[in-house]
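All the exercises in this workshop are built on plain-text protein records. There is nothing in a record beyond a sequence line and a structure line. A learned vocabulary of local backbone shapes supplies the integers on the structure line. The question running through the whole workshop is how a given chain folds. Here is such a record, shown just as it appears in the course material:

***
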Amino acid sequence: MSLGVGVRAAGPGSPAKPAGAARRSRTPLSVLASRPAWVLVAVVAVVALAIGSVHSHGPTAATRIARLDSLIKCPSCVDLSIAQSDAPIAVALRADVAGWVHEGLSDATIEQLVVTRFGPQVLLVPTGSGADVLLWVVPILLVGGGGVLLAVYLWRRRRLEVPA
């Protein structure tokens, strides 16, 4: 007795299933819901956390010097760091910074020494107080607020165009 093309006979009393139905029952979602998949995800997570928890011994002296040189503005230049400038004062200040790092002074102490000598405008990175905060926060708020207003406008416009 023929049941048709691509249909397999099932046991008595059960409906006929199309050929290949058993193969299609394992969808990607069902594989992800299986226990071995979750065990694999857990192992990968544990390994990633173990690798990420290994700390280095901290930045080297050369790394610290390069970072400080890029943060300190050349006192005689316009918007150049001492790392970018070849002005005599920048060269002397780079030598001072390298000496202070090799003496073991902290980055904060070195920054404070430079600020004491040349004033707060010598740092290219904002201090996080006063007008510096406004110069960073206001543009971010304006762009974010504009994005929110644009999203609300487009959402309302689309809602009016879609017939109910």
Remarks:
- Residues 131-161 form the longest helix (31 residues).
- Residues 58 and 64 are 10 Å apart (CA to CA).
- The radius of gyration is 33 Å.
